[in-house]
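Troubleshooting: if your tokenizer reports a length mismatch, compare your output against this known-good record of 119 residues.
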Amino acid sequence: MISESWEYYKEVYKDMMSLGQYQSAAAKTAMYKHNHKVLYPALGLAGEAGEVANKVKKMLRDDNLDKNAIASEIGDVLWYAAMLSKDLNIELHDVAMKNLEKLYDRKERGTIQGDGDER
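Known-good structure output:
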């Protein structure tokens, strides 16, 4: 039987992990109820993004950059984004590719700065 522990994933993906591989491995740690699909990870994503902002706020206040603490919160954001995508039957890789497509299109058109989703 193949182990699905952290030690297993750490060894298999020690050099690089795709977003799809991350999404699949992360899904094995999801413990929320089926009737909370979409809602639970959406709320968690918002909460964890707030925690990233709070760590950065404290960095400004204390003039002390704690990269590890911020990275930990970014990891939580990634997990919730991966689970929200999974619950919507969207591959995280596809989300990343569409986002880059949008950003490079904006860059080419000179609209990367400014406001609005449809620029």
